[in-house]
Amino acid sequence: MSIDTAGLPPQDAGVNAGDGGRTLLDLLIPLAERLWTLTLLPIGIGLLALGVTYVIPPTFTARTSFLPPQQQQSSAASALASLGALAGLAGAAGGVKSPVDQYVALMRSHTVSDRMIDAFELMPVYREKFRVDTRKELEKNVRIAAGKKDGLVVIEVDDEDPKRAAAMANRYVSELQVLTSTLAITEAQQRRVFFERQLEQTRDRLTSAQRSLESGGFNAGAIKAEPKAAAEGYARLSAQVTAAEVRLQALRRAFADNTPEVQQQLATLGALRAQLAGLEARAAPQGDADYITRYREFKYQETLFDLFARQYELARSDESREGALIQVVDAAAPPEKKSRPQRLFVALGAWIGSLLAISIWVLARSRWHESVRDPIVAQKANQLKRALRLHRR
Length: 393
What we know:
Elements: H1 2-6, H2 8-33, H3 35-55, E1 60-67, H4 77-81, H5 87-93, H6 100-107, H7 110-120, H8 122-125, H9 131-141, E2 142-146, E3 153-159, H10 162-182, H11 187-215, H12 220-224, H13 227-254, H14 260-281, H15 286-322, E4 327-330, H16 343-371, H17 375-392
Antiparallel strand pairs: 1-3, 1-4, 2-3
C-alpha cells in the first residue's frame, strides 16, 4: 500500500499533462475528420469566386496630375508702393491666399460635377434617373487628392470604358481652368475685380462732372482766379482722402479699432481731411465759386480715373500671366490594364475566408454534439426546442 501511495504523484502529474494534450486534440480531431471538406470546399469556393470575376465588367483607372497656380509677387507691387495710400487697396483686395485644397474643392463642386455629367452623359452610363444620384455615383468613381509634399493635385477616374476614363480625368483640369478664369481666386484676379469696380464708378462720376462743367459756361473772372492749379491740388488731395478712407475700411475688416494699424490710418486720414478743409475754406469769390467748384470736381474725378485705370491694366496683365500657370504634369491616357477586379486577390480571399468559416462551423458542431451528451445540457436543449415550437405555432 505504501508503494502505491508513493507512486500517486507521478501518475497524477501524467494525468494532468494528458488533460492539457486532450484539449488540443479535441480541436484537431474534428478538423481531421472533416479534412476533405476543409480541403475541397474552400478550393471550390475560391474557384467559383475566380469565375465570377470573369463575369463582372472590368474597371479601368485613368490618372492625371497637374501643378496648381502658385502665388507670385505681382509686377504691380513697385507701382503700388509709389502711390502712397493706394498701395493698401491692393493689399486689402489681394490678401486672401489660395491653397491647393481650394482647387480640390472647386473640382468637387456641384458646378463641375454637373458639367461632367452633361458632357459625358453619365446618367444613362450610371443607370440613374436623378441628377443627385448621378453626382453621388460620380463621387465614388473619382478621387481627387492634393499631395502634401510635392504640391501636385492627382485626379483618378474609374470607368468601364478606358477612353472615357482618360477623357474625364483630363476634362476635370479643363473645367478647373474655366472656373478659375471666372472667379477671383488669385491675388491678381482679386485686384482686377476691385479696380474694375472702382473704375466703373469713377467713370460715371467723371462723366457727370464733365457735363456739369460744360454747362457752367466760361467767364473772364474764372481766368483771373487761375482755377487750374488750385483745382489740380484740390483734386490730388481729395484723391488721397478717398484712398485713405478705403484703406481704413479695409483695415477695419481685419483689425480692431484700437490696433496700431487702424490708429495710424485714422491719424493720416485726419491730417488729410484738415488740409482739404483748409483748401475749401479759401474759396474763390462768389461769382466764380460755382465754376471753380465744378472744375475742381472734374479734375478730382479725372485724377481718380487715371489712377484706377493704371492699376486695372496692371492687374489684368498679372492675371493673364497667372492664367497659364495650371501646368499639367501627366496627362491622362487610356489605361491598358484594368484596375479591378483583381482576380488573384479575390480568389485567395474567398479561399481563406471560406476555410476559416468552415473550420469554425466544424468546431462549433463538434462542441455542440459533445455538450448534448451531458444530461443537464440535453434537458436545456429540449426545453429550447419546445419553446421554439410553441413560438412557431
